[in-house]
Structures are given as structure tokens and as C-alpha cells.
Amino acid sequence: MRRSSTGAGPHTSWNARLVGLIVVLALVNFVVDSAITAPLLVLPEMLDHFDTDQPAWLNATAMLAGVMWAPLLGKAADIHGTRKVLVLTLLLGGAGSLICAVAPHIALFVAGRMLQGASLAAVFLAVAIVRDACAPRIAMIAVGIVTSSSAVLNIASRFLIERLATAFGFHVLFFVSAFVAAAMAITVRTTIAESRTRTPGKLDLGGAVLLGGGLAGVLGYISLGSSLGWLAAPPLALLAVGVVALVWWFVGASRKPEPLIDVRNIGGPLKLTLLVIFLGAGAYQSMLQLIPLVGAVPAERGLGYGLAGQGSVALLLAVPAIGLVVGGPVAGWLAARIGPAATLAGGVVLGFVVSLGMLLGVAQLPVALCSAFLLGVTAGAIATSGFNTAAALAPTERQGVVSSLVVVGVSIGSVALDFVGSAVLSSTVVVVDGETMNSATGVFSYIAIASAAFAIAAVVAGGLVRRTRANRTPSAPGLERNPA
């Protein structure tokens, strides 16, 4: 019989012990938000402090590093135990936060953000603990709660951090993040039992470096090409290094007995799932990056957009958190009834509709708040359904690795669309009263790219639903008979 991470058999009904586990893991996910998403609140201040016009490097670097960290820590969890690796993940993220807090220049700050990227692994490690501890139908709902309920704390923290940053500078956010990470590492170590499932194997450190470095080179080309020229030597050199590293990684992954990501054993349904997550999560994250940039510009500038003076940036970033609280549990409840793949498809369709609404939301606060809330619902549905769909395709001994692929999809999609959006903005700037600002053309093109990503994701999700319906088992909606 499968043993749970609590030391007993899987939960088949709701009880106090399960609720306590969910509360702890939800707080773990709050650590992820404080490290990855919360810095958006002070993005304009960070841009001024480091004197740069590249928000993606300050914001998306942690996501980029997550591509390297996630499969590495996922494999480590399968080999050494989920709780042990989760504690390590929290400590790494906390160390990265401290580096960011004291970094005197952008290079060290980016290094800290890359270390913070390890925090992303906490999301799928928490999911793996839930799925190990619960029967499938209970697990689908519990995953939704764990991945989204931390947003309740995010709502209050947005306003607190905004006030603290105003009083003490943006660095205070990273000190708070480090403290929370350390506190949760101790909590996890003392309250959650270690999982008993083990999968023998070894870690592919070289593959992690090649994958992370290759993506950094390609995205560096996108970032620098918009300002230095797409055919300039430095961007082209970065592109060449990135492509060579990615090809080298892929060739190695196709030949190694235990690669970082086993590309040979990713079946069709899982590929479709990861593509939907890549596009959907990337579109959502890019829209989230746009909110503080639009929120810092007053409409009186006459640029055709701007929300400054109508409401605080904290309010605009708190509203998606409310939507996330709603979207995650509802998606889990729906997944237990209609299947996670169908729920995932519904989430990306909603995202497409909402992204179109942001064409008006960049100038009208009520529309922006409504769109931001529904974007949060979209994010909750995509995250919960993505984990549930991927986990349903994997055997017990591969839960850590397969769940990590979801984070890889989220990370690559978020980083790619963040960098593409930033490149569009920086290449379409205008000068107003001697100050360089984003143009309406850039802002609306940015939204159009996100909308197109949602639209493509919806089409792919439709194909995924058809595949899962063809292979559905009678007892578990949306589950594949074949392994990933």
C-alpha cells in the first residue's frame, strides 16, 4: 500500500490532520510568492535604483533560474525524500533573498534572483506531498487549495510591503522574504513527516547548467537585441552560445541513462499539457508584469493609457491574488468532476477573454480591477489543473520529476513572454517632456501578444481534452491509462 508523507495511509476524507497539512503547505507557497511575484510591487523603484530599462532581468530572472532548479530538485525529491528537499529549497530561496536585499549593483542582484528561483520548486514539492498523502479525488481539490490559498496572505502583504517600501526602500521586501523562508523551513522540518517512496538514481548537474545557461543566452539576445540591434555582435554572440548549449543539452538528454529531463519518456498528452501551461502561464505572468508599469503612469500624460492616481499599485496586484484564491479550489473541484484537462482548457479560454478586456483596463481602473481579478482566477485554474493533469499521467515513483516539468513549463513561458514583452516596450518608447516612456503602441502590442498566447493555448487544450477523453478510465475522470 502506498504510504503518505504523514506516515499513515492516504486520506480518503477531510479531517483535522489533512487540514493542518494543507495549512502548512499553503504557507510554504506564500514563501514562493514573496520571492517570485511580490517584487513586481516595487519594480519601478528597482528600475530607478539600478538605472536600467530592462524589467524582465529584475523580474523574470528568478523564473528563468527555476527552469534549472525545478527538474534538479524534483529528481532529488524522488531520490532523497520530498520533505528534505523542500527544506533545502526554502533555505536556498531565503539565501537568495538576502543577497538581493544587500546587493550593491545589478549583477549581484540578478545572481540573488537566480538563487531565489529555487523557491519555485516548493510549489510542486508541496503538490507532491499532497498527492502522496491523499486519495486522487481528495488530492485534486487539496492541490487547488494548496497552490492558491496562500494568496489570502498575499492580499494583506501587498499593502504592508508597499508601506514598508515607501518608508525604508524596496530592499525591505527581500529581508521579509528571507525571514519567511527561514521560518517555513523550520516549520516544514518539524511538522511534516518524510515520504517513504524512493526512486534510485543520480542528479544531472551538467544538464541543469546547460539548460539554464542556454535559455539565458537566448533570452539575453531578445533583451539586448531590442536596444543594441538584432544583428549586433553582443546579442548574436549570446544567441549562438544559448543555442549551442540548448542543443548540447537536448542531445545529452536523448542519450544519458538518467538525464535532467527524460525527453524520451514524455508522452503526447503530457507534451500537450506542458505546451498549454507554457503559453497560458506565460501570458498571465506577462500581463502581471505590465500592471505596475501601467499603474505608475498618470493618464494626464496623454499616452492613451495610465492608472496612476486612480488606485495604488498594491491594489492592482492584490486583486489577482483574490482571483487566485477563487480559481484554484474551484478548478480542483471541477477537475474531480469533469477532469483536469477540461478544467485547464476552460482556464485558458477565460484568460483569452480577459486579456482582451485589458485593452480597456490600461486606462480605466474599474475595468483593470475586474480584468485583474479574472486573470487571477485564470492563473489559479491553470496552475491547479496543470499539476492535476500532469500528476495523473505519472506513476507514484515519478511524481516529483513530472510535477517539476509543470514548473519548468510555467517558468519558461513566464520568462519568454516577459522578455518578449519587455523587448516590445523598449523598442517602441516615446519621449514626453524629456522623459522616456512606454508608448501606447508598445502597451497594446504587449497585450496582443499575451492574447495570442492564450488563444493558441486554448486550441492546444482542445486537442488535449479530446486525447484524455479517448483514454479516460471510468473511475477517475481525466486520467490517462498510459504513463507519461
Model description:
This is Major facilitator transporter. InterPro entries: MFS, MFS_dom, MFS_trans_sf. It comes from Amycolatopsis rifamycinica. GO terms for molecular function: transmembrane transporter activity. The chain has helices at 16-36, 43-49, 55-59, 61-80, 82-102, 106-116, 121-133, 136-148, 151-168, 171-191, 205-228, 233-255, 268-295, 313-338, 340-361, 365-392, 399-426, 440-470; strands at residues 430-432, 435-437. It is an all-alpha fold. It folds into two domains: 16-194 and 256-470, Growth Hormone, Chain: A (Up-down Bundle), CATH 1.20.1250; 205-255. It has a two-stranded antiparallel ribbon with strand order 1-2. The longest helix is centred in the C-terminal third of the chain and has 31 residues, at 440-470. The protein is globular. The two termini are 22 Å apart.
Oligomeric state of the chains present here? single chain
Biggest sheet: strands side by side, in what order?
1-2
- Class based on secondary structure composition and strand pairing: mainly alpha
Query: What's the total helix number?
Result: 18
The percent range for strand residues is under 5%
Which parts are unreliable, with pLDDT below 50 for 5 consecutive residues or more? 1-7, 473-484
CATH class of the largest domain, please? Answer: Mainly Alpha
CATH homologous superfamily of the largest domain - what is it?
MFS general substrate transporter like domains
> How do the helices and strands follow one another from N- to C-terminus?
HHHHHHHHHHHHHHHHHEEH
- Main sheet, how many strands, which sense, barrel? 2 strands, antiparallel
Mean pLDDT: 84
Radius of gyration (Å)? 21 Å
* Dominant shape: globular
Overall number of structural domains? 2
CATH architecture call of the largest domain: Up-down Bundle
CATH topology of the largest domain: Growth Hormone, Chain: A
GO molecular function, one term: transmembrane transporter activity
Protein name: Major facilitator transporter
Membrane topology: Multi-pass membrane protein
Subcellular location: Cell membrane
